[in-house]
Amino acid sequence: GAGNEENAYNYSMILLRVSFFCGILVGLFVLLFSPLILSLMGISKSIYPLTKQIVKSEVFIIVVKSLSLQLLVGILRAGGDVIWTIFMDLVPLWCVAIPITYFTGLQLGWPIYIVYLLSCSDEVIKIWPCIRRLKSKKVRKEWSEGGKMEIKVIGAGCKECDTLYQNVKEAVKELGKDAKIEKVEELIEIV
């Protein structure tokens, strides 16, 4: 962002578009060359139709993952929105994808290619909240402010901890960075 909220947002949207088109290209490559690759792998004729269906599911998943990964890791997490992205990674996975995979695969006995597709349902679910988060003023404000670096030196207050704290302060000063450096010694704060 370097102090320019709109610039950071525009670059993130460009990254998102590039990621989406790369996902489509990789998906098409996988789809077009899968017959050749599967034949080179020696897939037996009895499971070839099933394998082909799984590959088709994977093509869709590649495109969706290109969006969700770019949003979560490439834009939001890299922009400092770490805690929110951790929850966005875990909640849809454990509350939707894993239960639906278990239920459709083991309880309903659905075909493997459908169960595999549903096992990645969390990736689809993540996209909309991530786009909303990207467009929100909160995350964009954090980018433009440049997010002052915060460093916590955690330890019990021993000589090594004091030395580390001093070394961190000197390193930050030498690099010419603006950072808030905090020494955390209280066990309750550490835990």
How would you describe the overall organization of this protein?
The model has no long low-confidence stretch (mean pLDDT 87). This protein is elongated. Strands 1-2 form a two-stranded parallel sheet. The longest helix is centred in the first third of the chain and has 36 residues. The chain starts with a helix and ends with a helix. Helix content is 76%, strand content 6%. It contains 8 helices and 2 strands. Strand 1, helix 7 and strand 2 form a beta-alpha-beta unit. It has 191 residues and is mainly α.
Concise description?
With about 190 residues, this protein is mostly helical. Helix content is about 75%, strand content about 5%.
Tags for this model:
single chain; 191 residues; mainly alpha; two-stranded parallel sheet; elongated
Distance between the termini: 33 Å
| Structural Rg | 23 Å
Query: How many strand elements?
Result: 2
Elements, N to C (H/E): HHHHHHEHEH
Q: Give average pLDDT, whole number.
A: 87
Per DSSP, the total helix count is 8
Task: Indicate the topology.
Elements (H helix, E strand, L loop, with lengths): L4 H36 L7 H30 L4 H26 L4 H8 L1 H15 L1 H9 L3 E6 L4 H17 L3 E6 L2 H4 L1
Parallel strand pairs: 1-2
Helix pairs in contact: 1-2, 1-6, 2-3, 2-4, 2-5, 3-4, 3-5
